[in-house]
Amino acid sequence: MRSPFNWLLVAVPVALLLGFTPDYEIAAFIAAAIAIVPLARLMGEATEQITRSTGAAVGAFLNASFGNATELIIAVIAVRRGLFELVKASITGSIIGNILIVLGLAMLAGGWSRQRQHFDRTAASANSALLLLAVIALVVPAVYDMTVFGHLETTGPTVEKLSLLVSFVLIVMYGLSLLFTFRTHRAPENISGFEPAQWKISTAASVLAATALAIAVVSEVLVGAVEVAAHALGMTELFVGVVIVAVIGNAAEHATAVQMAVKNKMDIALGIAVGSSIQIALFVAPVIVFASWLMGKPMSLIFTGFEIVAVALSVAIASLVSLDGESNWLEGAQLIAVYLILAIAFYFIP
Questions:
Q1: Angle at 129 between CA 99 and CA 177, to 5 degrees
Q2: Among candidates 97, 111, 30, which has minimal Cα distance to 68?
């Protein structure tokens, strides 16, 4: 339970206080952003305690799932407020953030004192194919919009219906990927090297529930102040979504993946980082689309051209460094460098 992040929990009541105080949007945004980091880390710690005895595959899946709960909560609240561009930017940022920053830091930290680290090539290959599917899902609605409705002032409901059907396909594909991982191609694992759980299951479950509730409340403050704060700080809504919100939401994955890599458990680190991006693209994004329809505010999957290029380039380099089944610290540094280049470019997009 002890972590250098825990002292940041003091930002939670500060964010709630400022969030209900008029004319303090910038301070509320900063406090809420800080508060989500320890909450996400606490959620990750509780999940890790539950999965200590489940093996690499299940452990990585649950870590990615609960790690992405932060992004999902923020996105649903943003959809309810009609901030669709922020939501789509956070989806883009989460995908590229996980496969560049999270995986990059894991490879850098884990490989710094080692010649190389190894992981399952079959899983890496399957993940690369799923990431490519995510790129296709982002490209098709945007290309359809440009080719069919490019000469019109509005797209009408067709693109929204297309996005809904594409989301359904992605959900089905995500389910099939779980079947592949846990049933038909499940690799035998030795879990004897895992540290024993320090929390009871009931304690970990209670912490998960409490942190999810706290993240939901703090996210309400964050989203409520984002427009005013972004304008005052000279940042666009696109940059806030792609970089700020995504980095905040990925705090749990950052910490857990790096810890696993340092312990030379690269299968888990890779599963958390890449698996989280896959889950964002194939599960979280479709769920957000479904939720937007239930709220009566349908959201399309039309992303900007640069967002699509950023995801495609990220998937390409992540696949390149992982398909050989081994990694080193220089490959991690390369992934981080690509992310920094993309983040700088997003900052300068008006």
A1: 95
A2: 97
pTM of the model: 0.81
Q: Is residue 333 within 8 Å of 108, Cβ to Cβ?
A: yes
Length of the chain: 350
Q: Residue 326 in contact with residue 203, Cβ under 8 Å?
A: no
- Cβ-count burial 261-274 (b if 16+ within 10 Å, e if not): bbeebbbbbbbbbb
In terms of Cβ atoms closer than 10 Å to its own Cβ (0-12, 13-18, 19+), residue 22 is: exposed
Query: What are the residue boundaries of the structural domains of the chain, listed by start?
Result: 6-348
Answer with the residue of higher pLDDT: 47 or 224: 224
Structural class in CATH, domain 6-348: mainly alpha
Measured CA to CA, the distance from residue 104 to residue 333 in angstroms comes to 6
Going by C-alpha positions, the residue among 247, 241, 226 that lies closest to residue 304 is 241
Residue identified by tokens 């399309």 is: 300
Q: What is the mean pLDDT of the chain?
A: 82
| Beta carbons within 10 angstroms of residue 191's beta carbon | 13
Maximal C-alpha separation, the chain: 61
User: Are the C-beta atoms of residues 310 and 89 closer than 8 Å to each other?
Assistant: no
Show Cβ contacts of residue 164 under 8 Å, excluding neighbours closer than 6 positions: 289, 290, 293, 298
pLDDT tens profile 183-222: 776 655 554 455 676 777 778 778 877 887 888 888 888 8
Taking the C-alpha atoms of residue 6 and residue 34, their distance in angstroms, rounded to an integer, is 11
Other CB atoms within 10 Å distance of the CB of residue 259:
19
Match 């789509």 to its residue by tokens. Answer: 88
Residues 281-321 pLDDT 10s: 888 899 999 999 999 888 988 888 899 999 999 999 988 88
**Could you give the 3-state DSSP secondary structure of residue 118?**
strand
**Which residues lie across from 327 on neighbouring strands?**
117
Whether the CA torsion 163, 128, 347, 104 is positive or negative: it is positive
